[in-house]
Amino acid sequence: MNHMRTFILLAGMTALFMGVGYLIGGSGGMTIAFFVALAMNAFSYWNSAAMVLRMYNAQEVNARTAPDYYGLVQELAKNAGLPMPRVYLIDNPQPNAFATGRNPQNAAVAATTGLLNTLNREEVAGVMAHELAHVKNYDTLTMTVTATLAGAISMLANFAMLFGGNRNNNGMGMIGTIALVILAPLAAMVVQMAISRSREYEADKGGAEISGQPLALASALSKIAGRAHQTPNYEAERNPATAHMFIINPLSGERMDNLFSTHPNTENRIAALEEIARTMGTGRSFRRMEASPAGPWNPSKKPGPWG
């Protein structure tokens, strides 16, 4: 169901983009818009992962520099039937993580030092399994395309305001152009966020299957959500277009499961994971797991570049 919903929303965003191009310049404008979108998506396809990792100053780690963290991802990738992704660490106190890359063969996963220092090993496994589920489902590519299309729609709307307001193109006129400038980017943003939310639920389910511990992932989500909005992520605040990539929204003030949220409500996600746990035969509430001892992420045992 989520895959079909994502396809429908992507088709709607593409139609919106082509429609904006048509309203600005007729069939010629629609053709130009198509090729602009094609070029932007091609650039994003090849360069988005490196750009995002550089944006957050992520440092690549390996079995020598971060044996516990790297080994855990290696084990989970094997469970998921995925090639080993590149593993990165971000020196940031906010607990969070994301995945990027155009396909499973060119994927990367990144966790913050705050995540490794906040969660126990089982919870970290749940989070990284969630990110690997994104990789397996090609969500990193899907969200790159939607972000690119949303940006292109906003660009076209601004172009219409600058150059199309004095002409009555296709019957729009000044009022129609102003409406286009306001409504088209808003509609694109709503569609982008709806796609992001649907993919998060699917990745939670996939992460529970890869790690085999849905309650550990539920516990991790609860801890991350409780701390993320208390610990600023300044890089994310400067680059809000990347917020949808993280397992929990890294920006301040996003708490509601509504049209303008990049992530589902955390309590809704926890409830879904608890239902998965019951289906898998583990009926404990995640709240009983929160007192479990910390894993190898204890500050006194921090290996590698975060020591």
List keywords for this structure.
metalloendopeptidase activity, 4-stranded mixed sheet, disordered C terminus, Zincin-like, 9 helices, single chain, 307 residues, zinc ion binding, mainly alpha
Structure, explained:
The chain is mainly alpha-helical. The chain has helices at residues 2-55, 67-80, 113-118, 121-136, 139-163, 173-211, 214-228, 234-238, 266-280, and strands spanning 59-61, 86-90, 97-100, 108-112. Strands 1-2-4-3 form a four-stranded mixed β-sheet, with helices on both faces. Strand 3 (97-100) and strand 4 (108-112) form a beta hairpin. The longest helix is centred in the first third of the chain and has 54 residues, at 2-55. It is elongated. 46% of the residues are buried.
CATH fold-level assignment: Zincin-like
In order across it, which strands form the biggest sheet?
Answer: 1-2-4-3
Instruction: Give the percentage of residues in beta strands.
Output: 5-15%
Mean pLDDT: 78
Low-confidence stretches: 285-307
Major beta sheet summary: 4 strands, mixed
- Which CATH class? Alpha Beta
The H-and-E topology, N to C, reads as: HEHEEEHHHHHHH
Report how far apart the termini are.
Answer: 44 Å
CATH-wise, what's the superfamily? Answer: Metalloproteases ("zincins"), catalytic domain
From the alpha-carbon coordinates, what is the Rg to the nearest angstrom? 21 Å
**Number of helical segments?**
9
Q: Would you identify the CATH architecture?
A: 2-Layer Sandwich
Structural class, please?
mainly alpha
Helix content: 55-70%
Q: What spatial form do the alpha-carbon principal axes imply?
A: elongated
Number of strands: 4
